[in-house]
Each structure stands twice: as structure tokens, then as C-alpha cells.
Design brief:
alpha/beta; D-Maltodextrin-Binding Protein, domain 2; 2 domains
Length: 286
């Protein structure tokens, strides 16, 4: 797609600067988003098989924590489910750090409910009212006469901040919401509570919860790439300046259509290039 052509250019620029013999460091540390974590884990495993002399550690403490670690110099790559904030850019510049962004995948943030809940669609305005505590009963949105239990991510989460921007329109989630530290915690909480609503990166949605459409639009690869799904976003990796050595090779591997990008789909997210990785995933499905 033309709107994503710059990403393809990025891949070839990276290839132009990657030498087969570069090895400036044997260890790479990756830290940040719990949303990007499954992608990073799969790509890391594949990369280390291809480059066994390189050791990569991956952790997921949240987008904000990953970006802070990058600025402080305690990680080589920060994964994030949002772009940098102006104050983060300012802090980085003050410390002489110049974060370089690489979009590595696309995602939809999907509202989810208990499988027994008959509600199947909510509008952006209804979601906002629920998360502001203005709509408190499922009957007010076509569901059963049950109190709504609102589950949200904590404020260090990039997923929370995109939700705050695109759904809440920068109003804060109300104080009665139950905050969770990861996508996995939200998934578990909603799957066990018939009153609950939460939101997840698309790669975390499974049969234990029921995904809702938003404004009548389903969150999937097509609507994420087109931007028609109201809560879609890019997922990022940031490096401290232009990457070099093994970090450059790792990012290049991540962006390669025939390598890292196929693991994006395997992790349940949306590759940068429409169609790549689809056949591999279908062939490996049980």
C-alpha cells in the first residue's frame, strides 16, 4: 500500500548499512510494551537461531518504562505500543539521546467482554461513557441488567494511552476502574467475570473472551491497515540513535518481509506488508 511505502524504504536503507561481518556487541537488551512482547519474543527466538553468537534478552514492563530505559541507557531497544510523547523527546534530547522509531507491526485495540455477554457492538461514545463511569449497567447498551465492571490498563501502558486518546478523547478513565498491568491480566480478568469489559491488543484476543465491534467495524488485519477501525495503531521499536552492529541486524531482521514479519502474524498481529506471513501461518496452524 502506498501509505506504507516509507516502511519498505526503511528496510532497504537498513540493508544498505548492514554488513555480514559486523558484530559490535554480542548482547542486545529489549524492554518495553507488553503488547509488543509476543512479537519480540518470537522474532528474538528466530534471530538467535540464525545468529547463535548473539544473545538477546526480552522483557515487558510497559511502553513508558521501555522508553525511559532507552533514554537512561539501560536497554538497547525499547518496544512501544505508542509513539514518543513530547516530554520524552525533550528529556532524550537533554540527555543527548536521539531515539529512532521503527514501526514493526499494526494492531487494533479491541474491547472484550465475557463470552456469555450478548452485547456485540459498542460505539466510541458508548465506550467513553462506560469508561468515564457514566454508563454503569449493561442494560443501557442493550445487554442484561448487570452492573458493568470496568477493567483498564495502568497509566504506564502505551495501550492505555492510545485508548485515552482515541476513545476517551483525552478524558481520564474514572477512578472506579480496575487497573491491570498487562494484556494478559486484562484477558484473565474479563474471562472470569461476566460483568466485565476490558480492551486488548488484537494478538491477545482468544476464545476465553468475546471481542466487540466498534461503530460496527471489526478489528482485523484489513481494517488495521486501512485505518478504518477506530482504535487502530502502529507498534514500534525505538533505538538509541541509528542502530549499529547486531542491533542494526536485529532491527533489519524484524522488518524483513520474509523473516521477522512472518512472526508478527504468528503472534496474532498485523504485518507491515499485506499478505506476508499469511501462508506460513495457515500452513502451521493445527
Amino acid at each position: 500500500m502506498k501509505k506504507h511505502a516509507w516502511l519498505v524504504v526503511t528496510v532497504f536503507v537498513l540493508c544498505a548499512f548492514t554488513g555480514s561481518g559486523w558484530a559490535f556487541a554480542d548482547t542486545i537488551k529489549v524492554d518495553g510494551s507488553t503488547t509488543v512482547l509476543p512479537i519480540a519474543q518470537k522474532v528474538t527466538e528466530a534471530y538467535m537461531k540464525e545468529s547463535p553468537s548473539v544473545n538477546i534478552t526480552v522483557s515487558g514492563g510497559g511502553s513508558g518504562n521501555g522508553i525511559k530505559a532507552l533514554i537512561d541507557g539501560t536497554t538497547d531497544v525499547a518496544t512501544s505500543s505508542r509513539f514518543l510523547k513530547p516530554e520524552e523527546i525533550k528529556l532524550a534530547m537533554e540527555k543527548g539521546v536521539y531515539p529512532v522509531p521503527f514501526a514493526v507491526a499494526y494492531d487494533c485495540i479491541v474491547p472484550v467482554v465475557h463470552p456469555g455477554n450478548p452485547v456485540s457492538d459498542l460505539s466510541i461514545s458508548q465506550l467513553k461513557a462506560i469508561y468515564m463511569g457514566e454508563i454503569k449497567n449493561w442494560k443501557d447498551v442493550g445487554g442484561p441488567n448487570l452492573q458493568i465492571v470496568v477493567i483498564s490498563r495502568d497509566t504506564s501502558s502505551g495501550t492505555y494511552e492510545v485508548w485515552e486518546e482515541k476513545v476517551m478523547k483525552m478524558d481520564r478513565v474514572y477512578a472506579g476502574a480496575l487497573l491491570q498491568a498487562s494484556n494478559g491480566a486484562v484477558l484473565q480478568a474479563v474471562s472470569k467475570n461476566k460483568f466485565a469489559i476490558g480492551y486488548l491488543g488484537i494478538g491477545y484476543v482468544d476464545k476465553s473472551v468475546k471481542p466487540l465491534t466498534v461503530n460496527g467495524i471489526q478489528g482485523n488485519a484489513e481494517t488495521a491497515l486501512s485505518g478504518s477501525y477506530p482504535v487502530s495503531r502502529a507498534l514500534f521499536m525505538f533505538t538509541r540513535g541509528w542502530p549499529e552492529g547486531n542491533t542494526l541486524s536485529f532491527v533489519n531482521f524484524m522488518l524483513n518481509p520474509g523473516k521477522g514479519q512472518k512472526y508478527v502474524r504468528e503472534a496474532g498481529f498485523v504485518p507491515l506488508y499485506s499478505g506476508y506471513g499469511e501462508s506460513e501461518t495457515k500452513n502451521s496452524a493445527p
